[in-house]
Structures are given as C-alpha cells and as structure tokens.
Amino acid sequence: MTIRIEPMRPADVTRCAELEQVLFPEDDPWHEVSFLSELAGPHNRYITARDADGRMVGYAGIALLGTADHPEAEVHTIGVDPAEHRRGIGTLLLEALLLEAGRRGGPVFLEVRTDNAPAITLYEKHGFHIIGLRKNYYQPSGADAYTMRRPAMAGFPQDGFTTDAEVSS
Ligand SMILES: CC(C)(COP(=O)(O)OP(=O)(O)OC[C@H]1O[C@@H](n2cnc3c(N)ncnc32)[C@H](O)[C@@H]1OP(=O)(O)O)[C@@H](O)C(=O)NCCC(=O)NCCS
C-alpha cells in the first residue's frame, strides 16, 4: 500500500471532521471550521496521508512556535482512519511533522490522554518523554492528559515535505 504525505488543503476539512467524530467521540471532536481556522494559522503546518486512490486515511498538524533563537513546536493533532491502523501511517505522519519541526530545531511538546496507550507508545518511539500531568484536560470527558516533550533533535533525513512510502497492506 503506497501512502502519500502532502500538505492539507481546505477541501480536506470535511473528511478530517468525519474522521474526528470516529477518533475522538468523547472529547469535543473538531469540526470543519476548527480545521479551517488551524489551516489559516500562519505558524501551523497540516498534512494528510492518502492512499493510492487519493482517499485521505490520516491527518496531522503541528504549530511552529517560539523565536528563531528559541524555537519550539507543539503537535496539535494526529489521527488515522481506524480501518488503516497499525500499518505505519501514524509513524509517517509523525515523522513528517518532526521533520518540519527539526528544520527550525527546538523541543517538541504535545498532550495525550493518559489512557491512550497506542499514541503514547508511538510518541515514546520517537523520543518523547512524559514530563507532566494535566488533570481534567480533555472536555467534556474530564480525562487527564500527559504532557510529553521531545528534546531538540535534527529532522528526519527525508528530502522535502511530500513523500511516498510503502506501508503494510
Ligand atoms: C495513535 C495513532 C495515530 C497511531 O496510528 P497508526 O497508523 O496505527 O500507527 P503506526 O501503525 O504507525 O504504529 C506505530 C507504533 O505505535 C504503536 N502502536 C500503534 N497502535 C498501537 C496499539 N493499538 N497498541 C499498542 N501500540 C500501538 C506501536 O508501537 C506501533 O508500532 P508497531 O506496529 O511496529 O508495533 C492511531 O492509533 C489513532 O489514530 N488513534 C486515534 C487518534 C489519537 O489518539 N491520536 C493521538 C492523539 S494525542
């Protein structure tokens, strides 16, 4: 299965909102307008993962923050169609975000539900460590979040933002 990672377009927000309903049913899933607002943020970078038919099977976004001297980044979201989990697509998306963050340098932060073992494992594999607990962070569920941090590292050695990759079928 070939997966293409490329920048998100405004036309993609309908499919993103559809996936959000499935992936985050308990935690105020983002609607189309939330994605449009994120896309408009000058410091945000959003990407999609598409299969060979062009169907979007995942999405992710990061904010590039701080200053040139003290850059930092914050992963805002990452999600993969449940029918395509465990094929390496989440890894491709996260690595593309980290490549983008690595261009500027600085640490990368994120929040993740304390009960989200799949995501925590994915993040730990990419150098993130738990540095704090935020009680009742997610609403309306009231679920707690871990704050995770990845120290400043170089980006991944891929050339450019658009990549094709083979994942398991
Ligand atoms: C987290 C998520 C994006 C991972 O996407 P994915 O495409 O399934 O991830 P990958 O196939 O690249 O998995 C990479 C690694 O993460 C870990 N992992 C992924 N799913 C896992 C699971 N269900 N249980 C345990 N570990 C898991 C594994 O270490 C896996 O490597 P392996 O398959 O070689 O063992 C996906 O589960 C998802 O969309 N979850 C719902 C949305 C979400 O929670 N997003 C994160 C919000 S902070």
UniProtKB/TrEMBL annotation:
<dbReference type="Pfam" id="PF00583">
    <property type="entry name" value="Acetyltransf_1"/>
</dbReference>
<keyword id="KW-0012">Acyltransferase</keyword>
<keyword id="KW-0808">Transferase</keyword>
<dbReference type="InterPro" id="IPR000182">
    <property type="entry name" value="GNAT_dom"/>
</dbReference>
<dbReference type="InterPro" id="IPR006464">
    <property type="entry name" value="AcTrfase_RimI/Ard1"/>
</dbReference>
<dbReference type="InterPro" id="IPR016181">
    <property type="entry name" value="Acyl_CoA_acyltransferase"/>
</dbReference>
<dbReference type="GO" id="GO:0008080">
    <property type="term" value="F:N-acetyltransferase activity"/>
</dbReference>
<protein>
    <submittedName>
        <fullName>Ribosomal-protein-alanine N-acetyltransferase</fullName>
    </submittedName>
</protein>
<feature type="domain" description="N-acetyltransferase">
    <location>
        <begin position="3"/>
        <end position="153"/>
    </location>
</feature>
<dbReference type="InterPro" id="IPR050832">
    <property type="entry name" value="Bact_Acetyltransf"/>
</dbReference>
